[in-house]
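Reviewers of the previous submission asked for a worked example of the structure-prediction workflow described in the proposal, so we include one complete record here. The input consisted solely of the amino acid sequence. No template or homolog information was supplied to the procedure at any stage.
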Amino acid sequence: MDSEFHRIRRLPPYVFAEVNKLKDKARSEGRDIVDFGMGNPDMPTPPHIVDKLVEVVRDPKTHRYSNSRGIPGLRKAIAGYYARRFNVGLDWEKETIATIGSKEGLANLAQAITSPGDIIMVPNPSYPIHAFGFIMAGAAIRHLPPTSPEQFMTMLDRAARHSIPAPVALVINYPSNPTAEVRDLAFYREVVEFCRKRNIFILSDVAYSEIYFDESKPPPSILEVPGAMDVAIEFGSLSKTYSMPGWRVGYAVGNRRLIEALARVKSYLDYGVFTPIQVAATAALNGPQDCVAELRQMYKQRRDVLIQGLSASGWQIPNPEASMFAWAPIPADKAYLGSIEFSKQLLLEADVAVAPGIGFGEYGDGHVRIALVENTHRIRQAVRSIRAYLQGGNGPEQTPPLEQERVLTP
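From that input alone, the workflow returned the following structure tokens.
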């Protein structure tokens, strides 16, 4: 009997496993690892959101099965957020749905709309679920390698014309995980026009839309483009915006046909997020937003400490405009290592964990992703250790007395 099932065979070995194994071993030996590997927010959820959860969970009526589409209050709050933030009007009943984090929504929509052999166009590098959600559903992936915004439409046109059968959907993700790139409304207009003419669905992932560093240029939604609702669905999450990663609550909004397809699949698979979490998520969206602005400022501070510190150490990294990541090209004299070996060396020689770029697709192999999930003191500690490694020193430097990072409150 074959040792692996069909869908499992389509999934490659987990590329982060080797680095994670070394990280666990180092920690078991008592080494202090500064961990930039996983995009796992380290700040606490704002107290008013936690307080709402505690209040609601004391009511035993909320302990029963919930609604796989999401409770009405949350879906109305999602529509209200889109009206305030993007000036996009949504029918909360037909054009919104709550998800168990955006990852679940993306994966289940892939199951809903994909037939075996369908072509899906996906950026490379990209967040793994963007490709593998469709791979598990039986699709074939047409990878879109890194390119400038100006060249994207040419590449997209070429990919669509040379795909047989014609593509069913295009996945886009801005601000991007892992590359931290952003796009403007002019870009989205071209994408919408292209896909409407060819009956290609657009799946837009905006999980990092509230983590941006230029207050004059908040990242847009593709649904702001006239006609986008004809072909587009957008996925968001409260994980990063409100530091709620473990709560697993997100949403999808947009094209009614796609929302209904996702709702139908979910109705067979889950009863939705625990009701008290949905009520707390409603409080997050409807409540004071000072906590979001403060969280943005904290990530900006961490970004500046990291980029400036590594630049002074001789490692030049593009300054991300948004997201909680820096997409770092491997230093020229280390490029021959590739992203897995370079990540291993940073761990073993500098006690710093990063994510190998190849984990996000083969076109990411010349980079590593650095997540801003350690405080500024720890970032400075990592920078000193990386500098010693790059300059051929003798490993991590000793840590000076702790510097206090400002604790954010709503």
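The chain has two domains: 6-44+290-390, 58-286. We consider this example representative of the routine output the project will generate in years two and three.
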